[in-house]
Amino acid sequence: xxxxxxxxxxxxxxxxxxxxxxxxxxxxxxxxxxxxxxxxxxxxxxxxxxxxxxxxxxxxxxxxxxxxxxxxxxxxxxxxxxxxxxxxxxxxxxxxxxxxxxxxxxxxxxxxxxxxxxxxxxxxxxxxxxxxxxxxx
Length: 137
Description:
Distance between the termini: 47 Å
Number of domains: 2
Radius of gyration: 24 Å
Order of helices and strands: HHHHHHH
Structural class: mainly alpha
Low-confidence stretches: none
Number of strands: 0
């Protein structure tokens, strides 16, 4: 009786892994999932033919609107942030701002540039601090 149970468990595991839906890489994947779930994709393929341009559109939208996860901090970036937040005062040098922007742009996929805007600089410092604290936790 126990061997039958083990076989049944294996069968159940196989079924659940087959139904696993791939995570969307971007907006194109999400739209493709919605059109498939609603049946719109079949209508479009019936009307426009098998090569309706959906795949190219999906890839283009994924490139334009990706769902990016933050990248990992490199050791030198982590050490810089550790020192920076240990000794940080109310002022930020141009070199410090450049380094924070480099880290933010690489890790968080932002497109920040040097700025004299105080609220932009505060947001940069806060974003990098949250990133650092998540590593330190």
